[in-house]
Amino acid sequence: MNPPNSTVPGNPCYIIGGADPAWNCIPESPYHQEIVYTTLVSTAVWCLVVVLAVIAFRGIYNAKNYSLRRKRSLLCYIALMSLFSTGSLAQGIILMQNLVFTMYDYYSDGFILGGLVYYSVAITLPFAVTGADGLMAWRCWILYQGVNYRLRLSVCCLLVFLLLCSLTSAVLTIVLANGDFAPATPLLAVTITINLILSALIVSRLLYHEFILKKTLGIAEKTSPFRRVIAMCVESCALIVVFAALALGMEWAPNALVWNLSVIPLTLLPHICVVSPLLIIIRVANGRAPTTTIISESINSDESDVEKKVPGHVSIRFKRPVSTQAPSNEDGNFTAQ
């Protein structure tokens, strides 16, 4: 979608001449002020990312129940996502300097990814979104390890399909960088859909296990560990969905002022995509999140581990001792990840 028509009365923008007119705003316009203020807010959020990354890094490094391979994988993930956030901030600072003070026009001067800069989309946004979606998909896959083969295969195919969609939308964001189409639209729409689907899968699985435990063990806690894990997962998805939905809606708004305001969620979204998984990693690594073994190696009702031996009585057989503390993560148990 092209920017709103600058000839509309009250539009704070003016047209830069040329056969293929690109538009920009005068330095005193609200658009430039939004870029400056948003960059300042982005800097504050980036500082939060740095603090969370350090805490997560220390928590994973000192974790006792993680293998060396798992530690290395998570530490590399934390470092990579932090770099995406840093790259987004660096682009915002450069954009603020060049666009506001020197009036350099990336879009019309042939910069290879000028369309992304032109639409205030961070070049690292596709990678940050894909990284956040990947962690959520991994948590979902771990949670469904204890189900029967057909359901596990179906979930696996669905997760692979969702990740391929995420990667495709990230590639389209780069391909459409210099087109007459808002480049972040496919990425935002896909990540909203993916997070909603994964949230539904995780919540349904946790609610099912809570129902089984209440039915077999008579557990009736108002705030069970399952509910706290659900809240944590929904919170992680909601952060991304809210900002992505705001950016998507404002990016397609016909009103020039609202369109200009889309720079705010678009600029903050890369940092949000980093903050969201870091919060999960910190809670798990530092032991502040409830960790409950809920797959087949603890209670497997699908395999008749709960069997009615005597009418009116229930016999419960466990393959391993049940604990509210997470066992070793080597065997893939779900630990609120």
UniProtKB/TrEMBL annotation:
**Polar residues biased stretches:** 322-337
Q: Transmembrane region positions?
A: 35-61, 73-96, 116-141, 153-175, 187-208, 229-250, 256-282
- Name the keywords, alphabetized: Membrane, Transmembrane, Transmembrane helix
Chain segments annotated as coiled-coil in the UniProt record: none
For the region Disordered, give the residue spans.
317-337
Designated name of the protein: Uncharacterized protein
